[in-house]
Design brief:
The protein is of the alpha/beta class and about 525 residues long. The chain folds into 3 domains: about 190 residues, Rossmann fold; about 190 residues, 3-Layer(aba) Sandwich (Rossmann fold); about 100 residues, GMP Synthetase, Chain A, domain 3 (2-Layer Sandwich). Helices cover about 35% and strands about 25% of the residues. The strands form 3 sheets. Strands 2-1-3-4-9-8-7-5-6 form a 9-stranded mixed beta sheet, with helices on both faces. A hairpin with a 4-residue loop joins β8 and β9. It binds xanthosine-5'-monophosphate (XMP). The site of xanthosine-5'-monophosphate has 12 residues, from loops.
Amino acid sequence: MEGKILILDFGSQYTMLIARRVREQRVYSEIHPFSAGMEFIRSFRPAGIILSGGPSSVYEEDAPRISREVLDLGVPVLGICYGMQLIADLLGGKVGRSAEREYGIANIRGQWGSPLFLGIEEFRHGMEIPVWMSHGDRIERLPAGFSSIARSDNSPVAAISNHEGTLFGVQFHPEVVHTPRGKEILANFLFRVCGLDPAWTMHSFVEGSVKKIREEVGGEGVVLGLSGGVDSSVAAILLHKAIGDRLTCIFVNNGLLRKGEAEEVIHTFRDAIGLHLEYVDAAETFLTALTDVEDPERKRKIIGELFVRVFEESARKIRGVAFLGQGTLYPDVIESVSFKGPSAVIKSHHNVGGLPEKMHLKLIEPLRELFKDEVRELGRELGVPPHVLDRQPFPGPGLAVRIIGPVTPERLRILRDADAIVDEEIRGAGLYESIWQSFAVLLPIKTVGVMGDFRTYENVAAVRAVQSQDGMTADWVRLPYDLLQRISTRIINEVKGINRVAYDISSKPPSTIEWE
Ligand code: XMP
């Protein structure tokens, strides 16, 4: 059976992971706030409902609750942690504070024969499996018609089920990696309990999104700031597929881009893909505003504010625009925002702070349910060129945070030339795609060198190459010596103004990836 899962969010930091795990099983799911209401839930027509965890206790006065009717719809329900306690409470069981908070790995023994535990062979032999617990409450009395289907050392009720086999609850978190068998347990709920088939693919995501975007946008226009990075590019191409030329992309050249970058973005998106692209060359405006500015945070602030101004001015010239498109990803959406409501708070580095309100635009964020690797998969499905999808991250403030000290046209020229060599050599060595970021930095010191018969007194460039999962932590890459040597020789020979190259061997923390 094809169908979708409704995830009701009670504020758990793991809610987004539940959605992801369900998608990994090729079942479509959506997260909605617990307060979505019966009318919405009925119209959603879920094949199954998952109630997330959450920080509250069901016996608290202002605890988030749902109508009991949700459990009477005849649709299978799985409650996770808080969700399980809520099921118990709604149906007349009793939940109280545990003597001890259970946090971390626990071992549970489950009932062999429960559809939720199909394939967990350990249970057949009375053995335990590790699970991740994070709760301070426990079920003291089960509702009528329910039994415990798993126990841990600390709780005799680590999972519950009604006798019909339609309502389930687990005290642990099957969605986190610390519950190694969690995937199977969730799959059992989807396939055995709800009777779903693994039919959903990125292809169906595209179809669904296109339909949703068309409905939401109607006949109006959308404007989107395209940087050429993975997220804004995939968002642009998805929107374009849905509404064609009613999408206008604005690409602002802030004068802080890498060598050839502006030309490449224009070529890829306007010429090859056929997006309606407005190119705004604001290099001079940005460089003038950055004159003599040394402090990194001031650089960022100036660049961020100017971007908003330039973008706004350009967007106002486009007629019929009612929406601002953004490539916001799930991790950007602040934790459990769906719990608080749809007003997503986005990270400031998206450089669009305040834009939607100022311009009276509605936000449209077609990637807000996806993780980075899913965005890449979506991009492949949409035919986005690999060189766009494989692009290393590049900071919004661009080369300004890689020129230590004031940014000048001459220093930009020097850094661009050096950076282009790093890029070429890393690609030539076949390492570009496997490295998180690799680039050059221009230092604010001069050192002595010799060239032929002459003494030189020139700049130092640092080369940085790091490996990272998400940019939060990073380690320097052990690049082969001969590659480092080629980079160094080429930079010193080919880039006028540099006579020394250093390799950055600091990890994050305590250093950062960027030098500013
Ligand atoms: P750091 O230097 O903090 O960088 O270790 C972590 C990641 O974030 C990128 N970065 C930025 N991206 N605006 C951005 O859009 C910024 O101001 C900014 N500062 C750092 C950096 O390139 C790395 O991937």
